[in-house]
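It is worth pausing here to work through a concrete case rather than discussing structure prediction in the abstract. The textbook approach is simple: state the sequence, then state the predicted structure, then interpret. We follow exactly that order.
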Amino acid sequence: MTFLITGGAGYIGAHVVRAMAEAGERCVVLDDLSTGDARRLPEGLPLVVGSVLDRDAVEDTLDRYGVTGVVHLAAKKQVGESVEVPLHYYRQNLHGLTVLLEAVAAAGVRGFLFSSSAAVYGMPDTDAVTEDTPCAPLSPYGETKLAGEWLVRAAGQAHGFSTACLRYFNVAGAAAPELADTGVFNLVPMVLERLDAGRAPRVFGTDYPTPDGTCVRDYVHVADLADAHLAVARALPGRGAGDLTVNIGRGEGVSVREMVDLINEVTGIGIAPETASRRAGDPARVVASADRVAAELGWKARHGVRDMVESAWLGWQHHRRG
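Step two, the predicted structure:
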């Protein structure tokens, strides 16, 4: 097969591209480079600079490279920003997906993998979030991911291609320093930025009903996430017009305080965190059940939290200090 990977020059996308290319899969990347970096891509791998909103560019890419499967990662993904500019998020994430699916259906593509998010669940009141846990997103970002799942499944059923929706939990780490996350939007890079600047990391809320009073989350190494994409993408052609929706996580909870303490230990900086009031909409605990993807495809995360932090720190130094 030949896979089109949208958003393939981004943090997660570049890891997916590398994993698939190293496994011998033919890939082409479509990325507008608004947040991506072409230097992340393997040398010689085709890159089309363009947007999924551009139907002509999408159709030309599908035709020129004989694409038979799509891995769709291109999206806006900042929760807070989505609250401020919801129209922009709906246009980019949902209208862009609609344009892409129209082209996919017309081209006879056989498989479509959609990058979704645990944000579709909102504030689940359960110890382990399964794929059957009710979805109640709390932000326009989460809404676009849930509506995107609906759209992907409906299009696949109507046009006869197989679909998969991967609900990511908290992604961290790097498979190589040059592929590390350069954005400062998630917990690990946010803590690294403050420690590297000699400032105390922030912990929002210490009175949650958890063992140490801070929020508990499920973290997955980006290299494991990339391997999950490879496993799912390879399985899609044999699934007919069916859908596979799975959580991608480790099934283990780590508190914010535990993560901050580990980052301090790995970096050797050792600045105690400062506490702040809770942020609106932060659930106390969100931890995945990853049983379905293990049963369906035999996939299981291999890397621990220390691996994530150590590789993220190497990547941070690579990008920030040259």
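Step three, interpretation. The radius of gyration is 19 Å. The first helix runs from residue 11 to 22.
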